[in-house]
Write a structure and sequence with these properties.
There is one protein chain. This protein is globular. The chain is built from four helices and five strands; from the N terminus they run E-H-E-H-E-H-E-E-H. Helix 1 packs antiparallel against helix 2 and helix 3 packs antiparallel against helix 4. The protein is of the alpha+beta class.
Length: 174
């Protein structure tokens, strides 16, 4: 799977959550995945994300308020991907990324492939510690997720990326 992360410096939780939950690419029969959140709708999640952000331990002018993260699988693996498999891999990613973060995830399907959009808090729940990851930590996370996918779901052969290679982020040739 390819993992993409883009950081946002402004409080745009509502905009991202609306796109994720109400967007036309969302798979309607899939569940919304949350972690460390109690709310059950966009407005409640926005409130929780903002409350959590107010607990930030170190405030800086250009702090990352949230990240928009995408987990994506190769189109040729679409017939082999179930919603349960996608949800399991996404939950594994959330826990390995940082078990203390706030997450909302939604499964989308473009024309030919599945992907998951995640809205991730910029700080851990309650502690106010930044959720920042160094490049090395991010590469370790990507390799870990690649290993989990390969071990548990070997049928997803086209979605192997080979993180740490020269053309990082590209699917391996089959």
């Amino acid at each position: 799977m390819i993992i993409k992360i883009s950081s946002r410096k402004n409080i745009s939780f509502r905009q991202l959550l609306r796109y994720m939950i109400e967007g036309e690419e969302r798979v309607p029969e899939s569940r919304i995945m949350t972690h460390n959140l109690k709310g059950g709708n966009i407005e409640e999640w926005v409130r929780e994300f903002k409350d959590n952000e107010s607990n930030r331990a170190r405030r800086r002018k250009n702090s990352t308020i949230l990240t928009h993260e995408i987990l994506s699988w190769h189109p040729k693996d679409t017939p082999k991907l179930s919603l349960a498999t996608i949800e399991n891999l996404t939950r594994e990613y959330m826990l390995k990324r940082n078990p203390h973060g706030l997450y909302v995830g939604a499964i989308h399907q473009a024309k030919d492939h599945f992907h998951v959009h995640l809205c991730v808090s910029g700080v851990e729940a309650k502690s106010g510690k930044a959720m920042r990851m160094s490049k090395g930590e991010m590469n370790r996370l990507k390799r870990f997720m690649e290993g989990v996918q390969k071990e548990r779901y070997p049928e997803l052969a086209y979605s192997r990326v080979g993180h740490g290679r020269r053309r990082q982020g590209m699917y391996l040739e089959r």
